[in-house]
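Hi V.,

You were right to ask for the full record rather than a summary. Here it is.
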Amino acid sequence: MALLTLGLNHTTAPLTLRERVAFPTRDAIGGALADLRLHMKGLAPEAAILSTCNRTEIYCKTDAPEEAGPALVQWLGGTHGLDRDNIGEHLYSLPDQQAVRHAFRVASGLDSMVLGEPQILGQMKEAARIAHHNQTLGSHLHQLFQRSFSVAKEVRTQTAIGTQSVSMAAASVKLAQGIFESLGDLSVLLVGAGQMVDVCAAHWAPHPRRMVVANRTVERARTLASRFRADNMALAELPERLAEFDVVLTSTASTLPLIGLGMVERAIRQRRHKPMLMIDLAVPRDIEIEVSRLDDVFLYTVDDLRDLVQTGQQGRRAAMAQAEAIIDTQVHSFMRWLGQRQVVPLIQDLHARGQSLRQAELDKALRMLARGEEPQKVLEAMSAALTNKFLHGSTELINRQGQHDPQLAALLSQLLPPARK
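Predicted structure:
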């Protein structure tokens, strides 16, 4: 049995590839898990998918890691119309302890573009819920995710990794300050009503003259807007009203762009070429990349904000050593638990074999007594036979296991009674 994580993220793949392999909605992930189960044909009985703007990762438990890895690559590429040449060099494959460490670091925000950012923890919890709902979250992945959440909490409470927040939302405000003379004169549109837009709304709320939330579901837009004293509108109104806004920030789960080149060109003409800042934090992108060619539009994607986000994180990096030490300890603890789980079937086999041997020797002893043999002689023969047969089988089991797993063999050897002197 092995744990395996396969994926790509903002350090291994460009945005153009990340948006192609993303699963942007809960339903998309659920459908992907069902398809993955069929494709893997039992190679990955437990699986979960984490898909965010910065990463797409598959976590699984497998009894055949050498076969499961290539099968996962084939499935991920095939699902999105990519072959190994397109995707292979951007993927990482992490087995066992590396997979555990990676999950703990991701949950703690140590593997994020924004060091220590808290949103990833909620996204991991959602990935676990979706896998549970689709019956692909078995005992091993359940324990891995629960331990990841616990580690993230420990890191956040015992280190300074979460202080001095430098998030995408904060970076978007800083970016606007470098373009416009005064944020107080701006009209800002937030497109979407998910977690990222919620965070952006909190950062933007104190600044602009006017803020509006647009969403396909008007009720969700109204609920979010009411928390920040903002207005709301339906997404269908966007083509007619885009020209009203100086700043447009988008983060939706749409699989296709919501804002096209033609829509922005019309808005710019209506604005008499007054500058417009557009920030697209969605993966896949909400705004057509061709919009960046327009002279009066400043278009930034999630990758474009990376330098701004990384500026000022030196204070957080000082806490990384402490966070990594916490993770090291918890990885070791999880691997001990995993080793114990691997021993359980072997212990069950030993118990079953012991019962079988006991019954066989008891039947033999009863036959000897029925023939009139001395009870003491019968008991000595039965105890000697039981001891020799049980120890012989157990020793063979440990020797076989020790050829490919010395740690597990050492643990098994502790289960045997000490030799008599």
